[in-house]
Task: inverse folding
């Protein structure tokens, strides 16, 4: 058996395991320890469509590519730092221009929905596996999704 034959068999086995995992997740079965082990094995194996040496999207943001991949944990820390130094609503410093951003309720609801989707995709689970790198960023997105929704009439009713 040649190396190409082994690689083809590995790819077929990985594709089958991935198909089983996706099929079972669609049935919304509980994320058990067995599924966790299978998912971890799939994440650790090199996917056939991802070039060798490419960054793991569960640990890196590929949106910031000027200086290479950007670690999700670093991105979350920088966002929290920026938010901690931000002005309160209505606060205006004389040497700075006003920065009040006005949103319609519909726009706030759409952005809130997108932030919830982002949080779901970054949090540990079927979307990114068991990696914890995106958890802080997911918490920030979920927090702001809730804040935005609460500013709308739909959020006030909840």
Result:
């Amino acid at each position: 058996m040649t190396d190409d034959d082994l690689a083809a068999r590995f790819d077929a086995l990985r594709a089958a395991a991935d198909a089983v995992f996706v099929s079972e997740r669609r049935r919304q079965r509980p994320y058990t320890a067995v599924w966790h082990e299978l998912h971890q094995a799939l994440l650790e194996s090199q996917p056939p469509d991802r070039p060798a040496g490419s960054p793991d999207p569960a640990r890196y943001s590929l949106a910031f590519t000027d200086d290479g991949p950007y670690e999700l944990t670093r991105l979350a820390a920088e966002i929290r730092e920026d938010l901690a130094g931000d002005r309160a609503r209505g606060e205006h410093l004389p040497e700075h221009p006003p920065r009040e951003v006005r949103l319609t309720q519909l726009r706030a609801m759409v952005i809130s929905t997108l932030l919830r989707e982002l949080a779901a995709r970054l949090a540990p689970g079927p979307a990114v596996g068991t990696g914890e790198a995106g958890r802080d960023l997911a918490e920030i997105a979920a927090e702001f999704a809730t804040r935005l929704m609460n500013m709308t009439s739909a959020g006030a009713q909840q």
About this structure: The beta strands are 60-61, 70-71.
